[in-house]
Amino acid sequence: MSSSLVIILSLTLRKTTPLLLAALGGLFSERVGIANIAIEGTMLTGAFFAVIISYFTQNPWLGVLAGMISGMGMSLLWVWLVLNSKRIRL
To answer: According to the 3-state scheme, what is the secondary structure of 68-89?
Structure first.
């Protein structure tokens, strides 16, 4: 019984860490007054490009780099859209 509980807790911690980090990023953006509703999309875009680049180059480190670059690109697109829009920020 004890070993299955440890397995469940370790899997829960491992699976929820990316979502908790995304929620923390959303919390910071909310604190400065900008609602970032594209956090999950940024994460999905980074994961997509990481898998695609890793598959075609057979190099996982290039996949990690591609994931980071695509995530930064999506974030820069979001910042540009927020700063150049004439709407009221939430």
So the answer is: HHHHHHHHHHHHHHHHHCCCCC
Residue type, 2: S
Query: Within its chain, how far is the Cα of 31 from the centroid?
Result: 18
CA torsion angle 85 77 36 27 (round to 10): -130
The tokens of 33 are what?
Answer: 């007054």
Q: Which residue in this structure is represented by tokens 């299955």?
A: 4
Confidence band of 34 (pLDDT split at 50, 70, 90): confident
Q: How far apart are CA 35 and CA 29, in angstroms?
A: 6
Give tens-digit pLDDT for 46-72.
999 999 999 999 999 999 999 999 999
Least confident of 14-18, 33-37, 67-71: 33-37
